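Notes, Module 5: Reading structure tokens.

Key idea: the token line is not a picture. It is a compressed description, and you learn to read it the same way you learned to read a sequence, by spotting repeated patterns. We will look at two proteins. The first is printed below with its tokens.
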Amino acid sequence: MLARRLRSLVGQRGWLVAAVLALAACHGAKSESAAAEGKGGGGGEAAAENKPVVDQKIASAMAAAARSEDKSARGGEGQPPADGILGEDGAQRELPAGSPAQLVLGSNGAEPRVRLGAARPSNGLSGTLQLSYRSGGSVMPTVDLDFKALDFKGRPEGAGGATAGSALRFSFVSARPAADQPGRLPENARAEIAKLKGSSVDFLSAPQGGVQGERFQVSGNNPMLQPLVQGSAVALAALALPYPEAPVGAGAYWMVKSRELAEGADVVAYRMVKLTELAQNVAQLTVTTRRYLITPQIALEGLPPHHVRQFKSEGNAKLSLPVGAAFPTSAEVQEQFATLVAPDSSPQQSFPVQSALEAKLSIAP
């Protein structure tokens, strides 16, 4: 029902009516799962008030390398909130607004070991992002975005009292439909997608990296372009990862905790990063991500005023990072979001909203 409402709103915008492909059958099966997860989720926020919120999978992996004296500091024996919603107080205890990303090294891996990361230039970074995004039972066109990263003045919303760090703006200098599409695009799709030029994603981070504050801006006067910029922000966050100060080798892993945006909403993100291979002076990294909503609302275009009952966000990424480089030269990102939403107009009813994105990033050396 909600998916039909969203598709109706999309159709009202004009150009996407022929580009949007219904995925009702696919998402119907997933919706039952999301709805089932929503049952019994009440009280999760209250549970978060008293328990550490670190995802149990991440906590278990960290506890395997760091001894018992560190477990309580990282929440190694805690449980995440059952409904995926931290609440403002819980988020403040986990990572106060404006705080830099926190990194905890679980293992420095085997010899040989190298120092990852480098001083991050505020200018000169450029690359291409290919993004495929679907939301609310509909698929958007796959787009190729060329971007440049420049420093900017001012702080993203949510940076609070953060101290000065690296302020980086990813600006889209061109946008076009990708060669491979999930369906046939209308003739005017290329012109509409081109309006993404001038859109931007801003990250504020500490000198060592990691998201500290974030915002995005959509150009083109077409609200239906917003999910593509929101999805781009999620994908580009992979480029902002901090790296351990100590040298690391194959088998090393560490956890990063940061405040970010997902589905247009503030979240606390936990990432388990593993160095799976170190060969030819290039580190291959895998990243597993869990996110927890801070307030019970998301910001998807066309969604009515609502209260989120259940939120689940899981992601995986693969990065190739040359030793001594500030940023990966390539990245593949997959993210999935499952949300159970109760409209304010019908608080006794709930609707599952499924979103997913796939992105490929290529960075100029």
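Here is the second protein, with the sequence above and the tokens below, as before.
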Amino acid sequence: MTRIRHWAVWHLPLAARILVLCVITGYSIALSGSLWGLLGTSGQDADGYLAQVLLTCVFVGAAVISGDVSMRMAWPRTRQDRVSRDLTSAWLLPIALLLPPAYVMVAVIGPSVHLYTRVWRGQPIKRVYSVAVLGLAYGAASQVHRKLLHAVTATRLTPAQFTGGARAATALAVGLAAYWIVNIVLINAVVVLTAGMEAIGTFLKDREAFVVDVVAACLGTLAAVVWSADPLFAVLLVPPVLLLEHQLFSGLRQAVRTDLLTEVANPQYWREVAGREVERASSSGDHLAILMVDIDHFKAVNDKHGHLAGDEVLAAVARTVAQALRPRDLVGRLGGEEFGAVLSGLNLLDAEGAAERLRTQVRDVRVRADSGDWISVTVSVGVSELSVTGGDLRRLLDAADTALYAAKEAGRDCVRAATREPGTVIDLSIPDQRAPAAETAH
């Protein structure tokens, strides 16, 4: 979905700011009214309240466990400021369908607090707004469903009430529609006010999100039916929901980590992993090298053969670089025709050998253009190593970038390595320059 930027209230446009405050206020008022109405219900004994609270706690606990087990393993952190879907409604919808609105309007707070504190720390105002939207959406579903299907004082439903005839089906369909409409309208309203009308087009094209919504609604309805038949059997829903949720977020995680064109790591994920590896190597005293690889005269390839052919060349070079290195070495596209690689455990001489190997293998790459011509390219490589340059990831990247430019100035299709002296590089293919590097490496 469309990215939501500047989620502090004072950074939002005025209209979005008013909407956020109105929704949060509306949720607070609706929740207070529902609680007041629940406590004032006649004919409700202590055992009835206890059973309802127990049901709510069971499904809230399932939602929390689901988030901790599935999302924590695969939550796509790079999507933290986007509208995203999950299967939490599989656990919260049963509360809305089985109990008065007050219970589900309180229940939405638990999984959201857990998500914020344990899985993903986003902006607090965004989390509060999301809770308010969900509370209103689930509350609307519960109220509509109860009004159409059964009396407000009912405490226990039977499976027949969910599946018994046209009235039950209509009540369920209208209740689910109320939830979906309120949720979608309020979420997309603030997105549009923040990011513009193009967000609507993005939302309508997101077919996978609609599928997730339908699956979650089906699972939530099934959970309500199973619970009303025998609560013990509801446990059987836990494994399939956890599996579906994990697969969903694993796919998202892989998508946001990968550059779609070259299928290597994207810049954000590569820098994140590289930073962690540098910190680990610094604390343990291990060797670690950074390679910066740039395709020579790539603009000429685009100008002569077109951008589609250029894209094929980029993908072919990325595959070759990844294949030339070890499986543990993370390759990423840093932008345009430039790639980076993290080589853990290699000193400067070994990293230079790896760079020479990939440089040689890239020279053998051939890509067929639409015109029938064969395209071949070369690469220039800059190398930096932690024990030589010291510092953090930024310093290593600066040193490798300096070495890369030196390789370009030396005629391209070659490798240069950074030294201890900032701004100076060496050619490790020359024996006289290789000796000092060997002393540093050992």
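Summary for the second protein:
- The first strand starts at residue 288 and ends at 295.
- The chain has 18 helices and eight strands.
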